[in-house]
Structure formats: structure tokens, C-alpha cells
Design brief:
By secondary structure, this protein is mainly alpha-helical. Helices cover 70% and strands 0% of the residues. It has helices spanning 3-36, 48-84, 101-106, 114-122. The mean pLDDT is 85.
């Protein structure tokens, strides 16, 4: 891969890392507010169905936090690989073939080539 392509992908990774960090902060703020305040204006207990809806929303928020956290971990691991072993970046971790610039431009944290990723998802 050309040096120019690697620098472009590094910038994509850093942009995605910033986006994920902003998303994590937003989701964390929303989750914190949801657990601190139930939004009720009176002291009457809300309907049990509303409790269920609130719980469902909190669960979705925590699930999104976990997903974004895993993505941040992947991006950091790929950045570390890019900085420590630049010749290995863009190589499939399973078969060793090139992942391809077009795929990396879309998913710069990709660890597998398209064939290996397809096989993994099929199994």
C-alpha cells in the first residue's frame, strides 16, 4: 500500500475514533440522566407499562454504549498496529491477503479480507 493511502486511512481511523468518543459521551450523558430522573412531574407512581418502557430505553442505551465501546477498542487496536507494524496494516489477520484499499476506506478498522469476513459470518 502506498504511503499516501496509509496516511489517508490513518486520518479516517482518527476521524472515526473522534466520532465514537463523542457518541460515547452523548450516550453516557443520556444514560446518566435516565437513571437519575424518571421525568415525572408529580409524586404519583407512574403506570407499570411506563416503567417497562423506561427500562427498555435504558437497556437500549447501555447496549449502544457497549457497542460503541467495542468499536473504540477495535479502532485503537488497529491504530496501534498501524503505528507499530505499518507493513501489517491492511493484511487479513486470518489468511494474510491484502484487505484492499476500497474496503479499508469504508471500514478502516477491518481485520479480515472480504472472503474471510464472509466465511466468518456464514459460520
Amino acid at each position: 500500500m502506498k504511503e499516501q493511502d496509509i496516511r489517508h486511512l490513518e486520518q479516517r481511523l482518527l476521524q472515526e475514533r473522534d466520532r465514537v468518543q463523542r457518541s460515547l459521551r452523548r450516550l453516557d450523558d443520556v444514560a446518566r440522566i435516565a437513571t437519575e430522573d424518571d421525568g415525572e412531574l408529580t409524586q404519583y407512581r407512574q403506570h407499570p407499562a411506563d416503567d417497562g418502557t423506561d427500562s427498555d430505553e435504558q437497556e437500549k442505551g447501555l447496549m449502544l454504549l457497549a457497542r460503541e465501546g467495542r468499536l473504540l477498542t477495535r479502532i485503537d487496536a488497529v491504530l496501534l498496529r498501524l503505528y507499530k507494524e505499518p507493513e501489517q496494516y491492511g493484511q487479513c489477520e486470518r489468511c494474510g491477503n491484502s484487505i484492499g484499499f476500497d474496503r479499508l476506506d469504508i471500514v478502516p478498522w477491518a481485520r479480515f479480507c472480504l472472503d474471510c469476513k464472509t466465511a466468518e459470518e456464514a459460520s
